[in-house]
Design a protein that fits this description.
heterodimer, A: 166 residues, alpha+beta, 43% helix, B: 71 residues, 434 Repressor (Amino-terminal Domain), two-stranded antiparallel ribbon, 5 helices, 54% helix, 8% strand, globular
Chain lengths: 166, 71
């Protein structure tokens, strides 16, 4: 469990109490909470673009919980890319962005009771047996995905496997 | 894979494009391409029936068992 966002919340609360103690101005003190709110708004505004994938996928970004699964497929990269776009149509995720040249697909899981939603990055790369698929599920905000990252992968792989029955 | 799909051979014999077959049988071009490469996990009887009807052939014309050394 990534404890950094929890730590950030505690730090914000401590600063809020300190500001309140020294300034006695509640509105000025509450401004400190613009930091986490701003982060959430920023994440929501950039989530739909593949060009911001580095922000969510960087190991230095400690504010998100991410889970990566890698698996191989016998299909060649172009056919697999087309197949995955077809599979995504039947999933509960939204297709947010895709890049045929870079063989990247970005999906979004909607907000639910447990999380603010997740971004799912799929990267296809050629391999000796066909293609290699890297599936990464990242929380938009929060220190834990409550196993939603793993469930997203299970749901995806189940749909992909069953789609190979024609 | 010991089971080979000769869909490309049958398509050539019938002078039919994959897209055309896709429209007739109601299976996507992507799925037919995967089937053509013998990389599907399984094929439904209903799909096989539709392809055989569209190409006017028998299942044996589409599927072939190729014995390997292990077999």
């Amino acid at each position: 469990m990534n404890k950094a966002p929890l730590l950030l919340s505690i730090i914000c609360f401590v600063i809020y109490r300190l500001l309140l103690y020294f300034t006695h101005n509640i509105w000025l003190s509450l401004l400190i909470f613009l930091v986490p709110i701003g982060l959430l708004v920023f994440n929501f505004s950039v989530r739909k673009r593949l060009s911001y994938s580095n922000w969510f996928l960087s190991p230095r970004n400690f504010l998100h919980e991410r889970r990566t699964h890698t698996f191989e497929s016998e299909l060649d990269t172009q056919l697999l890319y087309a197949k995955l776009l077809e599979v995504v149509d039947n999933l509960e995720f939204d297709l947010l962005d895709h890049d045929e040249n870079k063989l990247k697909i970005l999906l979004g899981a909607s907000i639910n009771f447990l999380t603010w939603g997740e971004n799912i990055y799929i990267q296809i790369a050629p391999s000796s047996n066909g293609s290699m698929i890297e599936f990464t599920s990242v929380t938009l905000f929060g220190n834990t995905s409550w196993k939603r990252n793993d469930k997203n992968f299970d749901s995806f792989i189940e749909s992909f496997e069953s789609s190979l029955i024609v | 894979m010991p089971i080979s799909v000769n869909l490309d051979v049958m398509l050539a014999k019938r002078k039919m494009q994959l897209k055309e077959l896709s429209e007739i049988v109601g299976v996507s071009v992507v799925n037919l391409s995967i089937l053509k490469q013998s990389k599907v996990k399984a094929i439904r009887f209903s799909t096989l029936e539709a392809i055989c009807e569209a190409l006017d052939c028998q299942p044996g014309d589409l599927l072939e068992f190729i014995a390997t050394k292990e077999n």
